[in-house]
């Protein structure tokens, strides 16, 4: 069992930056892949970024590639999402999720979810 708690969301102007954190508790977090997803009002949940269990492999949605960076510190049981050059269209609730060792871009493949953190980007 893994419990996930996101933090770091907030209100930022377009062009600004935020760093989200996904803190995990529970056994063997370092053996799980972690993904970040977001959901804007009235829209489907969409994939943002994911990292495998070791942090050695990552993948990104095309809409955030080059602006967002996912990383993890297994010693701290935490996964980060650094978001630069934020745009108003990045506004959403961001959630992290965990699954087996290899990541997936589908939210249906993830077993554990956090509650989410709101990110609002003003123009």
Descriptive account of the structure:
The chain has 123 residues and is mainly beta. Helix content is 0%, strand content 51%. The chain contains no helices and eleven strands. The chain has strands at 2-7, 10-13, 18-26, 33-39, 46-51, 58-60, 68-73, 78-83, 92-99, 112-113, 117-122. Strands 2, 4, 5, 6, 9, 10 and 11 form a seven-stranded mixed beta sheet that branches. It has a four-stranded antiparallel beta sheet with strand order 1-3-8-7, with no helix packed on it. Strand 7 and strand 8 (78-83) form a beta hairpin. The mean pLDDT is 96.
Number of helices: 0
Strand element count: 11
Question: Measured on Cα atoms, how large is the radius of gyration?
Answer: 13 Å
**Spatial separation of the terminal alpha carbons:** 40 Å
Helical amount among residues, as a percent range? under 10%
| Major sheet size, sense and barrel closure | 7 strands, mixed
Unreliable stretches? none
List keywords for this structure.
single chain, four-stranded antiparallel beta sheet, seven-stranded mixed beta sheet, 0% helix, mainly beta, 51% strand, 123 residues
Concise overview:
The protein has 123 residues and is mainly β. The protein has strands at residues 2-7, 10-13, 18-26, 33-39, 46-51, 58-60, 68-73, 78-83, 92-99, 112-113, 117-122.
How would the blueprint of this fold be written?
Blueprint: E1 2-7, E2 10-13, E3 18-26, E4 33-39, E5 46-51, E6 58-60, E7 68-73, E8 78-83, E9 92-99, E10 112-113, E11 117-122
Parallel strand pairs: 2-11
Antiparallel strand pairs: 1-3, 3-8, 4-5, 4-9, 5-6, 7-8, 9-10, 9-11
């Amino acid at each position: 069992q893994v419990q996930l708690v996101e933090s770091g969301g907030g209100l930022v102007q377009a062009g600004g930056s935020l760093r989200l954190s996904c803190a995990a508790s529970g056994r063997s977090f370092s053996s799980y892949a972690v993904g970040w997803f977001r959901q804007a009002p009235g829209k489907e949940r969409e994939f943002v970024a994911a990292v495998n269990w070791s942090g050695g492999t990552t993948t990104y949605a095309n809409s955030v590639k080059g602006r967002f960076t996912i990383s993890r510190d297994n010693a701290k049981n935490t996964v980060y999402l650094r978001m630069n050059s934020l745009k108003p269209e990045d506004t959403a609730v961001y959630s992290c999720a965990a699954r087996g060792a290899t990541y997936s871009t589908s939210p249906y493949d993830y077993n554990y979810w956090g509650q989410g953190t709101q990110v609002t980007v003003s123009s």
